[in-house]
Amino acid sequence: MLLLNFGSTTHTITAVVSAFMTGLAIGSFLGPKIFKKLTNYFLLYAAIEFVIGISALLTPFFFEKATSIYTSFYAVYPFPILLLITKFFLITLALLPATIAMGMTLPILVHYITQKFRVSVGKTVSILYAVNTFGAFVGTLLSAYVLIEVFGLRSSLYIACSINFILSIVVFAMSKKQYVLPKEDQEPASSESTYTSLYTKASIRFALVIFSLSGLVSMAYEILWIRMLTPISGTYIYAFSSILALFFMGIIIGSLIAYFVKTRYLLSSFGFAQIGIGIGAISSVVIASSRFQLSTWAIEALIILPATICMGLTFPFISRFARVSGAGSFVGTSYAVNTIGSLVGPYIASFLLLPFFGTTRSIMLLGFVNIIFGIILFQKESIQKGKAIRSIVTSGMLIVCVTGLLFLILQPQVFYERSVSQILQKVTGGSYKYIYKEDETASVIAWSNEDGSDHGLLVDGVGMSSLVNETKLMAHIPILLHPDPSNMLIIAFGLGTTHRSALSYDIDVDSVELVPSVPKAFPLFFSDASSLLTNPKGNIIINDGRNYVRMSKKKYDIIAIDPPPPVNSAGTTVLYSKEFYEQSKKLLTENGMVSQWLFYGTRIDDFRMLVKSFIDVFPYVQVFLSPQDIGIYVIGSVKPMSVDKTTIEQKLSKYTKANNDINEWSKWDSDRIVKLYAGDKGMLERFAKGASAVTDDHPRTEYFLLRQTFTTVDAMSTYSLLYPDTK
Predict the structure, then answer these.
(1) pLDDT tens-digit profile of 258-317?
(2) Distance CA 514, CA 520 (A)
(3) End-to-end Cα, the chain, rounded Å
(4) Average pLDDT over residues 620-637
(5) SS3 string of 475-530?
């Protein structure tokens, strides 16, 4: 929901994750301060579940208000840093009520169980943490694989809120006298008395600092692993959900293992977990490289599970530093400390590690950081317990870490992700020019040989467009149809072909591109790119296309949209939804038009839904075939359009640069362009009859698994469905 309002950018995703963690940190810290004053914990827990439900139920309202404020700032203060801060603040504010309440739940449960049943803090935290994370595991898969596809976004939210309300009612009904803790079992007044006497307070506080930094590193891993796995797992929402689910599964397994581990050396045990995280992280880079040829599921599991299992050990081990009498306060404080680190992790990964070090180096660098944490904890235990042998072991491990870091700095290409590695092997040396960049949004690799016969652009391992007439015509067809265009908006820059062709008409061209590094590849594909990049009529805007359309007040004669492939990719729906076309229509001038490229390479039912979304918004629609019969251009307007051969001929004669551009790769004239015309809105209405539109609330092409599993479609191609008389 927030991506729809604030844009599908790394900034927004980072803000959402950090805002969630901020609320959890505040809640886990405040929770013990509240329940110190109470005795009926079931009544308190019922109230918290009710607050979570109400707050979550109101989030769509909060999001709309936050978006309105952000839109007003966007119009008045269009400064990137100020807008970024405003976005972070508003998202955090919208999520805080629900997430603060969520953060209170674990400390309260830990305190109640340890006091009521006098069980150890470590075992209690192990079980509760595993059970709670299992719920997160189920919720992740259930929402992605079932709820959103069947019920839509808002109804899925309402279902989740209903569960909160049911929990609240059930727990409230249980809040009888036998569930009330006696006064003597309340939290100790002094926080100092919450610590175990086995270690000095300084040692325990030091362990908490490492625990906080470990949370930072763990959340950074999640961002980095998603980046590394995207070329392997694909860009479907199900791939991202499975990665997150595996992250949770590792924590569940680790928590359960911790339940059975008995140790007197808590600092060393915590240190072992840190070293395990580090080794698991470093091995994940090796597994993802071209050195291993395994199934996708095996690669995902081997990359994520080893390190996350060790992550699952850390919280139960840390909780053992608490006295039973002070369990709630210590668990709340330690969880808050860890979560504070976790909320910083996504920022560090997105805005520092990825742009400066790249995915591979960043993961390995953080792996060594975890190992060093473990070495330090071993050393701390050695000093406190007088175990000299540990000092020798830690010194040896430190030497290994330094050696590994030097190897990482000098030979990073050894462990590049496989798709990157294959391309780099081909293009390094010889007649190729190439770039390989990683920014906060995606990894980009682009290449071209001297004669342009071999070229490509991969964004997170997904191939974008190619140098074909289709992308030229995305500019030429709508410009030739429009009576007198003065400006144009292009959403998705790609190789830059459409941007370049539009500028040949001497009009103002704004191109919006999500990935900052993509326009940097422009000179690889066109020798005149440098002059075009400095052309005052051309403007490249780094932003999410949907967000730009929603926030912009500028009017355009033409809007051309070419969403990145494939159609079913996570986040792509925002450029195909009915609401997006309605927002685009508001930016049009009196004779304006919107041109959308629809690729045939998708299922017929998906294609019909895409068409339905478009024709529901525009009263007038014209359809043009692509030269290679791989898709169609649908052009919508609020006023009738005419496809006039004479007008097209006159425009091509008038604009010499445009005529040269359209004929650069093959011969084009007015006759050939007119022959691409295929029909009007009536034809599309017949084709899409009975189909449901793609909407923001029902992103049907993005969440499709159940539909595609339990329904079949006609085997004939989309082309033959549109034109049944064509053989």
Answers:
(1) 999 988 888 989 999 999 999 999 889 888 876 667 788 889 999 999 999 999 999 999
(2) 13
(3) 44
(4) 93
(5) HHHHHHHCCCCCEEEEECCCCCHHHHHHHCCCCEEEEEECCCCHHHHHHHHCCCHH
Backbone phi, then psi, for 339, in 5-degree steps?
A: -70, -35
Q: What is the dihedral of CA 499, 500, 504, 505, to 10 degrees?
A: -10
Question: What is the distance between the alpha carbons of residues 652 and 667, in angstroms, rounded to a whole number?
Answer: 13
* Cis ω before 231 (30° cut-off from 0): no
Phi, psi of 603 (to 5 degrees): -65, 155
d(CA 110, CA 300): 33
Structure tokens at 509: 């061209």
DSSP structure class, residue 415: G
Q: How far apart are CA 473 and CA 558, in angstroms?
A: 13
Q: Over the stretch 214-250, which tens digit does the pLDDT of each residue have?
A: 999 999 999 899 888 888 888 889 988 999 999 999 9
DSSP helix, strand, coil percent of the chain (3-state; round to 5): 65, 10, 25
E strands in 495-619: 508-513, 538-542, 556-561, 588-599
CA torsion through residues 540, 543, 546, 549, sign: negative
- Alpha-carbon span 416 to 713, nearest angstrom: 40
Sign of CA dihedral 21, 25, 28, 30: negative
b/e for 124-146, b at 16 or more Cβ within 10 A? bbbbbbbebbbeebeebbebbbe
**pLDDT digit string (tens) for 666-678?**
999 999 999 999 9
Other Cβ atoms closer than 10 A to 292: 12
Assign residue 255 a region: left if phi > 0, alpha if psi is -120 to 50, beta otherwise? alpha
Structure tokens, 14: 């980072």
Round the average pLDDT of the chain to a whole number and report it.
Answer: 86
Distance from C-alpha of 48 to C-alpha of 650, rounded to nearest angstrom? 70
40 secondary structure, DSSP code: B
Residue 447 phi, psi dihedral angles, 5° rounding: -150, 160
CB neighbourhood size of 718 (10 A): 22
Closest among 475, 444, 495, 624 to 560, alpha carbons compared: 475
- Grouping H, G, I as helix, E, B as strand and the rest as coil, residue 322 is strand
Calculate what percentage of the chain has a pLDDT beyond 90.
48
Using one digit for the tens of pLDDT, what is the confidence trace for 550-573? Answer: 888 899 999 999 988 888 888 888
Nearest to 566 by CA among 526, 523, 610: 610
Q: Are 501 and 661 in contact (CB under 8 A)?
A: yes
pLDDT for 6: 76
pLDDT of residue 355: 87
Q: Please tell me the distance from the alpha carbon of residue 321 to that of residue 465, in angstroms, as a whole number.
A: 56
| Angstrom distances, CA of residue 130 to CA of 92, 222, 250, 312, 496 | 27, 19, 10, 8, 49
Confidence of residue 330 (pLDDT cuts 50, 70, 90): confident
In this predicted structure, the answer to whether residue 471 has a pLDDT above a threshold of 80 is yes
Edge-to-edge strands, sheet with 556-561: 538-542, 508-513, 487-491, 556-561, 588-599, 631-637, 620-625, 677-680
